Amino acid sequence: MIELIFSDRCNGCSQCVTACPSNVLAVGSDGKPRIADQSACQTCFMCELYCHSDALYVHPDCEQPVSLDPAQVLASGLVGQYRRDSGWDEFASDPRYENQHWRMEGIFVLARELATH
User: What is the DSSP string of 35-99?
Assistant: First the structure.
């Protein structure tokens, strides 16, 4: 479930808001994303994948929110791990991180279409 947004890392592109299939995120008055409906989070990690700034952290517990220390999460190296391990963006040319998400593109397209209806 989405737990943290590091506003100091966020560039305000809102790609995470657009990528979220269940409208968990919204753009705040400062132009940056905020968690609008945490309970709707499906723990799909789409927001993390589309965040080039590594400004989001989704905890793998999809059932309930957890209390996290943002400084500990940053120090742990977990921020950006899903995007890196999925071989997205700057990691695409690194053979250690083979991107297999192309297999899910049809599902992602359907989820985005359903979210807009």
Answer: ES-GGG-----HHHHH-TT--EEE-S--SS-----HHHHHHHT-TTHHHHHTT-GGGTT-TTS--
